Structures are given as C-alpha cells and as structure tokens.
TrEMBL record:
Protein name per UniProt: Uncharacterized protein
Protein origin, superkingdom: Bacteria
Source organism: Sulfuritortus calidifontis
Length: 477
C-alpha cells in the first residue's frame, strides 16, 4: 500500500512532491548524493553540507587512526525500514553501512589506498573504489546523514497534504555537525504499522546511480591506459592491416586485471581521470527523473493533464469554492512545474504571520524558464495566489501579492483567476507594477491556464513554458 492510499490523500504520484513509496516494502529507486549536490535550494545546500561534513569527518578519523569512534559513527548508518527505498524483497530491510556491515566497511575503508592517498572525497566515491559498497548502501547512508532535513521535509509534507502525525516519536540518529555526534529527539512523525515514516523528495531519487565502477573503469580508466600504451609503443600495441595501431581493452584487462582494488591502483597515479569522471557526472546530475521515468520506476501513472485541468475548471467561481480551487490549482502546478518548482507550502505565513501567501514553491530549476528567471531576478521562491473569481480582479489583488515580495524570498509571482474582462488592461497593470520595482506578476485565467497545459501536453519534457515567457516578456518590454 502506497503512502497516498494509506492516508487517503486522493493524489497520484505526479501531484505529490515526494516519492509515493509502498509503506510495507521497498520502492526500487535510490537517493543519489550527486543529485543532492545539483539541487540548488536552501534545503539542498543543507543536505550537501551535512554529507560533505560527515564523510570528511570519517576520512579524518581514518587518517588519525581513531578506529573506535569511526566504528561507532558508521554503526548509525543502517536503515530502519523508514525510507522504503531500494531492492529489499518483502519488508523493507535496508543496506546501510551500519549494523552487520559496519565492521566490514570500516576494514575496507581503513585498508583502502583510496582513503589513505586522498582519492576519496565524497560519499559516492565509495561506490567506485571500496569493495562491498554499492548504490543501495550509499543511498541508505546518505538518507541517514540527511535525516534532520528529511524529518523537517516530512513534517512539511504532512502538514501540506494533511497526513496525520503522532507526537513523541523517536527520531532516530540525527547527525550534528557541531558536536560531531549522532543525537536523538522525540518529535512528530507519521507512523505506519508501529514504524516511523520518512518521506523523500522525488527530485533527489534516481533509478540508476550516477557513479558506476564499471563505467568509470571501462570508459575512463581504460581509454587513458590505451593512450599511454600507444604512446609507449608497448607490447600491447597491435598493427592493423590499414596501418592503424590499437590497444584493445581486453588486453588491458588481461594485463592489469579488473575490480575496485585495481581501479584504486590505476587511479592513484592518474587522479585527473577520476576528477574528469566526477566533473562529467556533476554536470549531468541535475536532470531529475521525468514523470514518465518516475511512473516506470515507481509503477504509478503518468500525469493526466486533462483530468487535472478539468478539476480546476469545474470549480464554481465564488467564495464557496475558494479552497477547492486553490487545491486544484496546486495539484496541477505541482505536476506541471516539476522538477523546476518544488516543496510546495500552502498558506505560507510571512512577516511574523501578519500576511499569508496561498502557495509558495522553491525554485530549483537548472534549465528552462524558471532557471532563466532565477539568473536575472530574485526568485528563490515563486509565489502563487489563487482568486476564485475573475472580472473584478485588479490593483488590490496585484498590491496584495506584490506586497509579499522581497529580495531574499523572491519577486516573482503567479496570480490565478477565473476570467479577465479586460486582459490587456490587467497586463498593463502588471507592467506598471514591474516598472515601479514592486515585482513581477503574471496573471493567468482559465483560458491562459488551458494554453499552458496544452503546451505541456504537446511537449511533456519541456520546462520552457512559452506562455509564461511571453507574459514575462510583456512585463519587462
């Protein structure tokens, strides 16, 4: 049973910000630390810092010979069935560094030349260079290190989607970078079958782990060795009939062997090869799974754009339908703008609670329209206001949303309404607001929203949103 069904959310995976995992078994996706590094949000920065800090502390302990302390820290990296990610058959089990694996991992790390020579830099490097460590173990370990941010994320999602939480639930070990220790607290969390549940943002989930020992060996190390053998005109060089010279990868494997220990030995004098691999991976790490890829991995449905749009359009205008309209808009936007806009908040308080915004999103775009916005204008957060009426919308509504902008939070917003009696006049008012340096507001009624959805249906993988770009261009022209 999935989270959405367990808690009767009435939602499908595309309209949820988190991975809609099975609560009684594992879902076959991983948390990839490389994906976390590419997440350009405040939450992502906190997670990156925790991962870097924890693993560097482990490496420092290895260098200093502090075996007992390192063993104790590694033992807290086991999964406790709460993330529900990975390949376990039946009930979630996890494959973290801790528990029975702690001793083996510690021995592998302490004995590894990769640790002693400084090749290891980040937790995902262990997939390449340490025997016995694979993607599932790194994923579980990463989830444990970022448990603190995941707890707060889970609490945010529970409040947002109406998932009940129980008080005084044991948090599990939370890494404290100030005290260099694991700490536990009693907190609010959802509980299923007497087990706490932690939700994971789908933007950091991957089917295929970005770091692969086989890929690194065959497509980075071996080509470098081929160049070296050719340059030295070694005995491995073959002369072809057409005069070309070659060194086969098979002959290199026969000479040097294969496996992670071999990778370490070959990489130590060729650190530039590993650096290139890391850089290549990080340049490509920003691409989150598409809706289709999530659906295939998690075995859920792809977005039904017509259904999501009709849910908005069928709401009767007026105060009585205001909440239904806001909920329908949010469900559509969460699917429509993924993975550019993430971590939705509803009725978000600002100015010590004196003002509230209907919905806010974190702008995590690394390409497309919202990325372009982020490069040129303050837009760490995108503000959304929903007005379940239309013809009478005007300056008061513009003043309301623009009054909630700030350089730190962002100065870009979307104002949704049902109809516009004079769209040109409304657009001029928005342009005046921008010209007065009070921020950028794009107004979308039912007709414009339908155009936006039709663009997505025509180009499902695009994050360019031409209709929004056109509206924004009008504001600055």
């Amino acid at each position: 049973m999935r989270v959405s069904k367990c808690f009767a959310l009435g939602r499908t995976q595309p309209t949820l910000d988190f991975v809609d995992v099975h609560v009684d078994t594992d879902t076959a996706v991983f948390v990839d630390p490389n994906a976390i590094r590419a997440l350009d949000t405040t939450w992502g920065a906190e997670c990156r810092s925790l991962l870097q800090h924890f693993f560097q502390h482990i490496l420092n302990l290895i260098a200093n010979g502090s075996n007992n302390e390192a063993m104790s820290l590694l033992a807290s990296l086991r999964e406790r069935n709460e993330f529900h990610l990975g390949f376990s058959v039946g009930e979630s089990q996890g494959r973290g560094f801790g528990s029975g694996h702690a001793s083996d991992v510690w021995k592998a790390l302490t004995k590894s030349k990769a640790a002693k020579t400084g090749l290891l830099q980040d937790i995902e490097d262990t997939c390449l260079l340490i025997e016995g460590i694979g993607p599932d173990m790194v994923s579980d370990a990463a989830c444990n290190v970022i448990r603190g941010p995941l707890i707060r994320y889970t609490q945010d999602m529970c409040r947002f989607y109406g998932i009940p939480m129980q008080p005084e639930v044991a948090s599990g070990p939370i890494w404290n970078p100030q005290t260099l220790s694991w700490e536990e607290q009693l907190i609010e969390l959802p509980v299923v079958k007497h087990q706490r549940l932690l939700l994971v943002p789908k933007v950091i989930a991957r089917v295929n782990f970005s770091f692969s020992n086989d890929e690194y060996f065959r497509h980075y190390l071996l080509p470098q060795l081929q160049k070296e053998e050719l340059a030295a005109n070694s005995g491995l060089v073959q002369l072809l009939k057409d005069g070309r010279r070659r060194v086969t990868k098979k002959s290199l494997v026969d000479k040097y062997g294969a496996g992670k220990l071999v990778c370490v030995d070959l990489t130590i004098p060729r650190a530039q090869v590993l650096n290139k691999y890391r850089n290549d991976k990080r340049q490509r790490a920003g691409r989150a799974m598409t809706h289709d890829e999530v659906a295939e991995a998690v075995h859920t449905d792809i977005p039904d754009w017509d259904q999501l749009l009709q849910r908005v359009l069928k709401v009767v205008p007026g105060n009585a339908g205001a909440t239904d309209y806001e909920n329908a808009i949010e469900a559509l936007l969460t699917a429509l703008f993924y993975p550019a806009l993430l971590h939705p908040f509803k009725q978000h308080p600002i100015h010590q609670g004196r003002k509230r915004v209907d919905i806010t999103y974190a702008n995590a775009a690394n390409s497309g329209f919202f990325h372009w916005i982020g490069l040129h204008h303050p837009s760490a957060m995108i503000f959304v206001e929903c007005k379940n009426y239309g013809k009478e919308i005007g300056n008061p509504e513009l003043d309301q949303i623009s009054g909630r902008f700030s350089p730190n939070r962002g100065k870009v917003g979307l104002l949704f309404c049902r109809s516009l009696e004079n769209a040109d006049l409304m657009d001029r008012r928005c342009r005046d607001t921008a010209g007065d340096h009070r921020g950028f507001v794009m107004v979308l009624d039912d007709e414009r929203l339908t155009q936006l959805v039709n663009e997505k249906k025509a180009h499902p993988s695009s994050v360019e949103f031409p209709r929004l770009r056109h509206l924004f261009t009008q504001l600055i022209s």
